[in-house]
Design goal:
The chain is an alpha/beta fold. It is globular. The strands form four sheets. Strands 1, 2, 3, 4, 5, 6 and 16 form a seven-stranded mixed β-sheet that branches. Strands 8-14-9-10-11 form a five-stranded parallel β-sheet, with helices on one face. A hairpin with a 2-residue loop joins strand 12 and strand 13. It contains eight helices and 16 strands. It folds into two domains: 203 residues, 3-Layer(bba) Sandwich (FAD/NAD(P)-binding domain), CATH 3.50.50; 152 residues, 3-Layer(bba) Sandwich (FAD/NAD(P)-binding domain), CATH 3.50.50.60.
């Protein structure tokens, strides 16, 4: 097996990975970006058909290339995917698609990255594989009647995947609200779970160009950060509860006929049972119950009791040379959002430069014989 060597290996060619690549290019580093998808942008293409971004076009990066479609209309997920693909081509990013990393380990002072038949050695690894990789489904899903069509939001594309009859959408976050509003046009729809507030403005309207882009984005990036007491308090609270709805409003769900219900707590006779004791006779269940970030392929002792990596602003101090970009709440409330990954990527690449200079200084600081 042939071994390749780079200053840095970036895992993931999404917004976070490409932005890290931009700063590595500027720093003159040799690097490669590995991604398991067949095309750059597929992490967006594989999401539900009607998805539109929440981010105003003026904040869509990565750095060095402006978003070329309408500056007044929120991009669709396919437009975002095409933008990332065009960016990688224009910036001549060394991206290798169809290469899925299956291991990261240490060999002395070197990291060994394995991906099938590929073996790469590097002093620095940047994990930018995305905040939302695998759907989380509760254990009770396995107890439902097999005749019920079940899927997580990561597998949902459009209502044609559902069979006739009522639909239960579990999880009242943004995906749950989006999907509920869509399927309510053709199915009796129930939405389970609490709504944790909502953004009070129409993010697709003209007012959004001031409120969202000037105030909300600024607060999410510069006020709610881990370097100030208020930010730390808000981040800690955000990690324990869901986010408010951004695009869909509760009154829109009500107008569409979506029936808001309590939590699903059990299964009775193969059907979902609510906390108030009611049993729902549904033929479809869409789980919008969150995600888990599968990092089991990192063979290093860097994880806490909750399974999340232990880091300081994306820097894993226990394993020098290992970094993350794009983790939820990595440094600010917007760290896993499109406007937030750029600053975190720039910071991580700066730490790589500092580490490299320290290593060079150590190598030349050889004691002179008496």
């Amino acid at each position: 097996m042939e071994t390749e060597r780079f200053d840095a290996v970036v895992i993931g060619a999404g917004q976070a990975g490409l932005t890290a690549g931009y700063y590595l290019q500027r720093a003159g580093r040799s690097f490669v970006i590995l991604d398991g998808n067949e095309r750059v942008g597929d992490n967006w293409r594989h999401r539900y058909d009607s998805l539109k971004l929440f981010t105003p076009p003026r904040y869509i990066g990565p750095p060095g290339m402006r978003y070329a479609v309408s500056r007044k209309v929120m991009p669709t997920k396919d437009q975002m995917a095409d933008h990332l693909e065009a960016y990688a081509q224009r910036m001549a990013m060394p991206v290798r698609t169809g290469v899925r990393v299956d291991g990261v380990r240490r060999d002395g002072d070197t990291y060994v990255v394995s991906a099938g038949e590929h073996r790469l050695e590097t002093a620095n690894v940047i994990v930018a594989s995305g905040a939302h990789r695998m759907g989380r489904v509760p254990a009770i899903a396995g107890e439902l009647d097999p005749r019920i069509v079940q899927m997580h939001s990561v597998d949902y594309r459009n209502p044609s995947q559902l069979q006739e009859g009522p639909v239960l959408v579990v999880g009242a976050g943004d995906s749950g609200a989006d999907i509920s509003l869509e399927v309510a046009a053709t199915h009796e729809t129930h939405l389970a779970g609490p709504i944790r507030g909502h953004v009070p403005v129409d993010i697709d309207g003209g007012l959004n160009r001031f409120v969202t882009s000037r105030i909300i984005v600024f607060a999410g990036l510069h006020v709610v950060t881990s370097r100030n007491p208020l930010g730390r308090k808000v981040i800690a609270k955000a990690s324990r509860r869901g986010d408010p709805l951004i695009r869909v409003k509760p009154k829109q769900l009500e107008a569409a006929g979506v029936r808001r219900i309590g939590k699903v707590v059990a299964v009775e006779n193969g059907l979902p049972k609510l906390e108030d004791g009611r049993v729902l006779d549904v033929t479809n269940v869409v789980w919008c119950t969150g995600f888990r970030h599968d990092l089991s392929w990192i063979d290093l002792p860097i994880f806490g009791e909750d399974g999340a990596p232990i880091h300081e602003r994306g820097v894993v101090t226990s394993e020098p040379g290992l970094y993350f970009v794009g983790l939820p709440l990595q440094f600010s409330l917007g760290s896993d959002a499109i406007p937030g990954v750029g600053r975190d990527a720039a910071y991580v690449v700066k730490q790589i430069g500092r580490r490299s200079r320290r290593r060079q200084t150590a190598e030349v600081a050889v004691p002179v014989a008496a």
